[in-house]
Specification:
Helices cover 50% and strands 14% of the residues. α1 packs across α6, α4 crosses α5 and α5 runs parallel beside α6. The protein has a single domain, classed as Rossmann fold, CATH 3.40.50. A six-stranded parallel beta sheet has the order 1-6-5-2-3-4, sandwiched between helices. It is an alpha/beta fold.
């Protein structure tokens, strides 16, 4: 009798584990499809097609990879931002990223790259509290006062960022930086698949807000 009961119990546990796995996979697929569909038409790949906005939001990433080489995500985001600025599609840039460690400062590294590429320093505002994409997007509205924004990153990232902005009633569009080779970005793409599901949970289930807000900082457009 005991063996029979253990067999039934094991069977029930395995059944629930299987149900949980199927439900999780379904949620991941649904979340990704929902975000991609919801932002369709707001994420631009050609500079001549994107409408102009006063302010662009450049989402941060590290300058170098763990092996010390230039991070292609960084390189291509800088190039995309410079292209937008020179084409008159944006007049000012919020550079938002992580600087929680002294030796790791995404906003400062990106500003240096932008200035080196010819962007006036007066046209750049640094946001040091962009610890997550949600923080960067929400802070661009609540701290820097931007009701309209052009987000700059790779396409997969832009979709999630625009989705978050729309939920927070911000008029957002995005410009896609050049994609990196699949072999280079495999881990990032897997992580992004999970991040889109997390974005759904953040905005619809737990109403996640940025870690820091603070007082407003007025951006003066030249």
């Amino acid at each position: 009798m005991k063996k029979l009961w253990n067999k039934i119990l094991t069977s029930k546990i395995l059944t629930w584990i299987l149900i949980l796995i199927i439900a999780s996979c379904g949620f991941l697929f649904f979340s990704n499809k929902w975000i991609i569909d919801h932002t369709q038409g707001l994420v631009y790949e050609k500079i001549e097609d994107i409408p102009a906005n006063d302010v662009g939001l450049l989402l941060g990433t590290s300058k170098r990879t763990t092996n010390g080489k230039i991070n292609l995500f960084f390189k291509y985001r800088i190039e995309a931002t410079v292209s937008l600025f020179l084409a008159g599609k944006i007049k000012h840039i919020i550079v938002s990223g992580d600087n929680r460690l002294i030796e790791y400062n995404e906003p400062r590294e990106m500003r240096r790259a932008l200035v080196k590429a010819g962007i006036p320093d007066t046209c750049i505002t640094l946001d040091f509290a962009g610890f997550r994409t949600l923080d960067s997007v929400v802070r661009s509205k609540k701290v820097f006062g931007q009701k309209k924004i052009t987000i700059i990153s790779q396409k997969f990232h832009c979709q999630r960022a625009v989705f978050i902005a729309l939920f927070h009633k911000q008029e957002a569009i995005a410009f896609c930086a050049q994609d990196v080779p699949e072999s280079y970005s495999y881990f990032t793409m897997v992580r992004e698949y999970l991040a889109k599901a997390r974005a759904i949970i953040d905005v619809y289930f737990i109403n996640q807000m940025p870690r820091f807000l603070g007082k407003q900082e007025i951006i003066k457009i030249n």
